[in-house]
Specification:
188 residues; mainly beta; SH3 type barrels; 3 domains
Length: 188
């Protein structure tokens, strides 16, 4: 059993007959009244996100989990295939389990959280950022680099993101996986 003081990002808890992963939390101590913890919980079974407030000191039913490094191999439709980097076992996951499936490049290493009780994968943690090559975008125009204007671009995995006007086809860019936003151009 855990309490609200044990809440942290990534903690998996059993709540309302489902397993949820804590994605955000905030301990609040108002000037008047008891302390509480505001959380944002994501269901690992259906991906639904709920906001919940727990009173301070409440007992939570935490789920024992293991984390393993897996390498992304390939996808066929909505099924994604991964290989454990230590024992080479392969697993398949559905697209709904992944947070940013359109940013996954073959060979990318991710962390998969597995329930210790039944060995079922609960969630996939992507790296904080990925480096992908731009395969299609409108050409940049000289002198258009002073503003914060953006244009749509397609990267090698098929994802579409907005990039600054100076990005051209063939450029490698760094993208945050949490929100799918352009970070910077990468020089080789």
């Amino acid at each position: 059993m855990a309490t609200t003081s044990d809440i942290r990002n990534g903690l998996c808890i059993r709540y309302n007959n489902d397993i949820y992963k804590v994605t955000e939390f905030l301990h609040v101590k108002p000037g008047k009244g008891p302390a509480f913890v505001r959380t944002k919980l994501k269901s690992v079974t259906n991906g639904k996100v709920i906001d919940n407030t727990f009173p301070a000191g409440r007992k939570l039913d935490d789920v024992r989990v293991e984390t393993h490094k897996f390498q992304y191999l390939y996808s066929d439709g909505d099924t994604f295939h991964f290989m454990n980097t230590t024992d080479y076992d392969q697993i398949t996951l559905q697209k709904e389990v992944l947070e940013a499936p359109d940013l996954l490049k073959e060979g990318e290493v991710v962390t998969i959280i597995i329930n210790s009780e039944d060995n079922m994968p609960l969630s996939v943690d992507m790296p904080l950022s990925v480096i992908l090559e731009v395969t299609h975008t409108e050409p940049g125009i000289k002198g258009n680099t002073a503003t914060n204007a953006t244009k749509p671009a397609t990267v090698e995995t098929g994802a579409r993101i907005n990039v600054p006007l100076f990005i051209n086809e063939g450029d490698k860019i760094k993208i945050t996986t949490e929100k799918g936003l352009y970070q910077e151009r990468v020089k080789e």
